Amino acid sequence: MTDPVLVNVSLIGNKHINRGTPCEDASCTLSRNGVSVVCVSDGAGGSKYTHARFGSQCAVDCIANLLCDHFDAFYFENRESLSRSLLVTAVHSSMADLLVEHQLDGLERLSCTLLFVAVKGDLVLAGHIGDGLICRVSSHGVSPLTLPSNGENASSTYFITFPNAQEYLRFIRTTTDETHAFVLMSDGVEEMVYDSSTQLVRPVVARLAELASKGKEQAEEELAATIKEFVIGAGQNTDDASVGILYLPETDAPDFSSMKDAKAKFQRNHEDTIRAVQMEWIPKVKHAQEILSALSSGKPLPPSGAAPSEDEPEEKKETKTMPSTEPSEQKEEKPQAPKGKEEIAANPEVQEPSSKITPKMVPLWAFLLMCGAFVVTLIILILYLI
User: Fold this and answer.
1) Which residues, other chains included, contact 270 with Cβ-Cβ below 8 Å and sequence gap of 6+?
2) Which of 38-47, 98-107, 148-157, 275-284 has the lowest mean pLDDT?
């Protein structure tokens, strides 16, 4: 089997050129130990993220080396949560030296997204946190492997520097079957080639991937020229642009003449939300918890399908509500720009906890009482909002 061809370019956008600020994107490729890796990262823009360009470069270098050295460990580990946590921990640990080197006050200064694809033989590992796009090109055409992850608007996203970034890191284990190439891109390119209303990836992505058939050096030269002309040159406020390609020689390319450049919009039910599912399941979860509580305490089991017991203290009943599955971070809106993202921030709730705080012991009855009061208030607020 012929080794994959790896291509990557990162170019500064007109927005940064006009302001005299550096490119905040980073990308890299690496082949070692039979593993080929492509990584792309987009440093956060804005005054809070003063050293995001260093964070993005650190993130891609760290992940490329980690997966080249330990591909098997991550691919064959069944506990996905452990793999995601270890990847995030590795990036945070690598960034710690940057905090000392640049005398920074926290990882937030280094905020960035992260996309990667690693291939060993016919095995594939892919990961993605934040916006941007990973595409798979096959003989059938081009389709998204992972989608952009934004908040309530396109100006907000998630970063690998979040304290609980593993909750938002999408981690994929698959194979190269029928794959011709993988194409990774930061949002500066994604916004030009991906239609979120139809989830259509435009055929030009497959054509960009085909440049890699000319070899790394020529492909990077032509790819950079194409991105500079059609992406960065599209306006005076364009964002930085990064593209990474992992091309598999001797595989079938798509039929470009048959690829579609338009697609019907899908109809989304905006009332079908996670909060709606939570509210639907609250009574069922409370009943299930009553059964489990009765089993553990030796009390008589409640009848099947019965509502929570009316003689149970209100505070105690309310503590059995379904835990929230809403993201623990909310991103702060940024000033709108024609392209790219300018200011993205996590809610202060997710900032690094202080190591100087020592919690005091609270009696169990007081803890339960406080929990009950909190949940009662939460339920009343939810019912009021809906």
Assistant:
1) none
2) 148-157
In a domain, 342, yes or no: no
Tokens standing for residue 95: 């960034």
pLDDT tens per residue, range 238-274: 999 999 999 999 999 999 988 888 888 888 888 898 8
CA angle 115-118-121, nearest 5°?
160
Three-class SS of residue 314?
helix
- Judge whether 139 and 252 are in contact, CB under 8 Å: yes
Residue owning tokens 């050293």: 51
Q: For the whole model, what pTM was predicted?
A: 0.76
- HSE, CB side, 13 Å, CA atoms: give it for residue 331: 26
User: Is the CA virtual torsion 281, 284, 290, 292 positive or negative?
Assistant: negative
CATH code of residue 232: 3.60.40.10
3-class secondary structure, 142: strand
Domain that holds residue 126: 5-255
Q: CB count, 10 Å around CB of 21?
A: 14
